[in-house]
Amino acid sequence: MAIELNHSIVWASDPAASARFLAEILGRPEPVRFGHFHVVALDNAVQLDFARTQETIQQQHYAFLIEEADFDAVFARIRERQLPYWADPGQQRRGEINHNDGGRGVYFPDPDNHLLEVITRPYGGWA
């Protein structure tokens, strides 16, 4: 039996803005509307479906594996927006990136303070 993650709902105060933010930072196509969702499609057939909530949003963490060649462009967009960024999920190493497992990685917030991460190598050596 094959099991693959298909999609996840990301709660947002403004789903259109949050989906657009992620798509722009990652260099993805414009989000697509599907019902009340604003959908960001990723290359591995996984979708993030942004949906509105009036409730207090609990911070979630979303990590994206990107090519080493794409890291500079993504990181430049983070810096252009003057977003805070960290080398660690505990947000202790502000203004730094990490070099875990021989790659590069950085954490940064989205408009609802979800902690996003881009990495160029999977942690722990898993491929």
From TrEMBL:
Residues 4-121 form the VOC domain. It comes from the Bacteria. CDD domains: ChaP_like. This is VOC family protein. It comes from Stakelama tenebrarum. The lineage of its organism: Bacteria, Pseudomonadati, Pseudomonadota, Alphaproteobacteria, Sphingomonadales.
